[in-house]
């Protein structure tokens, strides 16, 4: 039985499960394509011919978009000429390094995965950084970073030191001096049975008045002590009290000039007997800490440091105590204060005391003196600052500190390149050019594009063109190279460069946007909409939605424009339209007066229609309108998160899910949304616990659904499958709307197919289709296929294509049921045309070529999508091809790169070991 077959449950995706001859490790998680708002281009252009000019009144206050005013960004992360080779080298480094070095290599891997814009890969690598961290400093930074990635600060009721229950994010676990890479598999200290972390036993000694044989005089008061107890605190004190100094023969010692109060000295005396500091006031413990530093009392210092670290609980506490920690070189106290600062990001960056500490040269030096200045710290801080405000002075200073902390080549490349990006945003083009040139000199080839852009901004266009021309000549051409060069040329040459960029990397949005605007400038708005629809068909972004809305406004299609603007605001609620001159909400207010108004019932009907038609953008727009009327409706925020997940807008989806949790009106509902947040950030077991807690309070559809989904995300055996079926049946007995019940029936059908119960599966799929869950046609096709009814399966997928229109996933799946190889190829070519990011068609075509012994063509076919979407399945397949051809070096490269994506994949691990053995034998 295949596992992960319930991947449709959460994200509402079709089960791809595409199995074809010689196609390996196919992806069951690829998203279903969506039908976009797509007016008939010919009809629009006919309208344009009858209209003397494009409409440009109230709804276009800033005119039409201009091709001269758009340009692609220089991305603020490392790009690699050979991404696969980079991954392979990192995997080999992990194999050969010591345990202490692993954390740094995983951080490098985080940076590599950053360019893929895959939050799950990034988070998994970050978890590995935390898991292998050896120092408290590294633990507090990475645990705070993991928390920031989940944006826990957006959850109502969560304090900075709230523990989510995972060891890797636990604030208490981060302060423990212990290297334990297996801690991820154990319960965190906050979840111990007694609710507290285990404490060391503390000694307690009673003394009689006769034991006191020494007094320290402070001012006019005396503090009686036991000489040998005080002497035992440190070697300097022992020397003073038992060595050749005059104090050794005195019964009273004047301590007035040692900057300690009577209360402080009394605390020293008590500590000398008990070894305890927890009973003292914090101000007294601070005196003890100072005393311990002055007289080298290491055990006392450690006790004070640990106690003070344990009482830091707020930003105000941290701001006050960090100064004492830095002054007294108290490692744990400073760590605890830093932990608060980092867990209060980005808010903490608006506090002048915090920014002074982090941003200034002196602040970094002070942190370094205590062991708390690192590349890791400034990497995290600079990423948060860039996300918050890329142009701010704080961002610049943090990146400068990042550069000062860099020790390895890749670290220097990153700091220099990001400084170039920030200066470019600030329009300080000469500085930007200098930083980009420094990054390029350090070995980062992509920074040369930054050099060219800075030259272009300084009116050195020909120099910029020559720069990119040289880059294309010297290296293997990539889509971003042609895209960048297109900025510096005109006419046919520009058009050719943009076509080359799209051919090499269809995920680049700028070429589509430029072509669409250029076409619009020729007064062919229908063709312009068709062009921008091409990328919106597989990659939804706020800027492309805005552009299509702009075109719709030009032809007075106010409904289409409003739909796209609402969807755009779902992705980015603060989006400014018309080159940053008008907030999207203002445009919504203007357009609403010119379209038909819907009441709540109308909205639900519209949502059903769009959901059934697999029109995710339209569904988003309807939900956005419903939320405008009911902003505290948690169910709607949750529905929005489901749609955004299906559109692969993960960051926006998590934001919606957090809002669903915050607006939950009861505990059982809140627990469900917390469970989904945990599941989506890689905490399956914790998500299961949340679901069970919710069910214990009240049985609900969503709680059972969550538990079933999380439970199904394993290697399912017969018993687990039965449990999942039981949970879904329980869910279907609970109240819910038809949209979600259709999904539940669809998922239940999927399980029955896997359990070889086609009749029960068919019944479930038919129920789903009856309540307009269109995607169930794919499940029904699977049932027909399992009964060897290939024609019926093909017809079922045709129904899905007809209902959903331009659906890449449906074409891809239908290709399995084609009797004619030409029809299979046709469907797969259509899938690639509609969504070039779907990798199954490339893998299938490569496998067919390999079966025909056309090895070079097969390798080329499977290599092509790696330029814009390197992923595990592609690397796995290419590694198998290379192994079958006897190319050991290439097999090693691809299998080791694949293991960076999935380090525990048994088949790839075996292939890698075989290749290593053959390599050793050859040597």
TrEMBL record:
<dbReference type="InterPro" id="IPR011333">
    <property type="entry name" value="SKP1/BTB/POZ_sf"/>
</dbReference>
<dbReference type="InterPro" id="IPR011990">
    <property type="entry name" value="TPR-like_helical_dom_sf"/>
</dbReference>
<protein>
    <recommendedName>
        <fullName>Ethylene-overproduction protein 1</fullName>
    </recommendedName>
</protein>
<dbReference type="InterPro" id="IPR044631">
    <property type="entry name" value="ETO1-like"/>
</dbReference>
<feature type="coiled-coil region">
    <location>
        <begin position="787"/>
        <end position="814"/>
    </location>
</feature>
<keyword id="KW-0175">Coiled coil</keyword>
<comment type="pathway">
    <text>Protein modification; protein ubiquitination.</text>
</comment>
<dbReference type="InterPro" id="IPR019734">
    <property type="entry name" value="TPR_rpt"/>
</dbReference>
<dbReference type="GO" id="GO:0010105">
    <property type="term" value="P:negative regulation of ethylene-activated signaling pathway"/>
</dbReference>
